[in-house]
# Entry
Amino acid sequence: MNEIRYCKKCGCELMSTNKKKLCENCRRNKNGTIRKISGAAGSALGLAGFVLFRKAKKK
Ligand SMILES: [Zn+2]
# Structure
């Protein structure tokens, strides 16, 4: 059972200890992207909340 697996994203060889489908590099990139997206979503939500708050105050 020493099957060589490759990263789903960049195709580089995965370490036998790596249980994931992506190499360390791609996983790190993916995590970075997720963090960026959640950060953007968080600030968008914050802005939406701010606008709603302003609207509610105007009434
Ligand atoms: Zn990769």
